[in-house]
Design brief:
Layout (H helix, E strand, L loop, with lengths): L1 E5 L2 E5 L8 H9 L5 E5 L3 H10 L4 E7 L2 E6 L2 H4 L2 E7 L2
Parallel strand pairs: 3-6
Antiparallel strand pairs: 1-2, 4-5, 5-6
Length: 89
């Protein structure tokens, strides 16, 4: 993983290994390209529920130091996955 900060934009370069993950699955199915667009949110559980109610199911979630993330399968609607990020204050 590599992160490039460009003002209000951050670009993540991710090279998945052979372990199962949303990144490996995307690469295997679609080849190289944009995997997701991330948005900072408050109320992660509520936002996941809203997206699932709009046929965008949760496909992967996890914790990182100071917060959590969730990947939502928005590909059918938006042609890109959405990542929700929630940082602790």
């Amino acid at each position: 993983m590599a992160f490039i900060d460009c003002g209000q934009l951050q670009i993540e370069l991710i090279e998945p290994d052979q372990q199962p993950s949303t990144w490996r699955e995307f690469l295997d199915e679609h080849g190289e390209g944009v995997h997701h667009i991330a948005f900072f949110v408050k109320g992660m559980k509520e936002k996941i529920g809203i997206m699932e109610a709009h046929q965008m199911p949760l496909i992967q979630k996890g914790e990182y130091t100071g917060g959590r993330y969730a990947y939502m399968d928005s590909f059918a609607e938006l042609k890109v996955l959405v990542e929700l990020l929630e940082n602790d204050n």
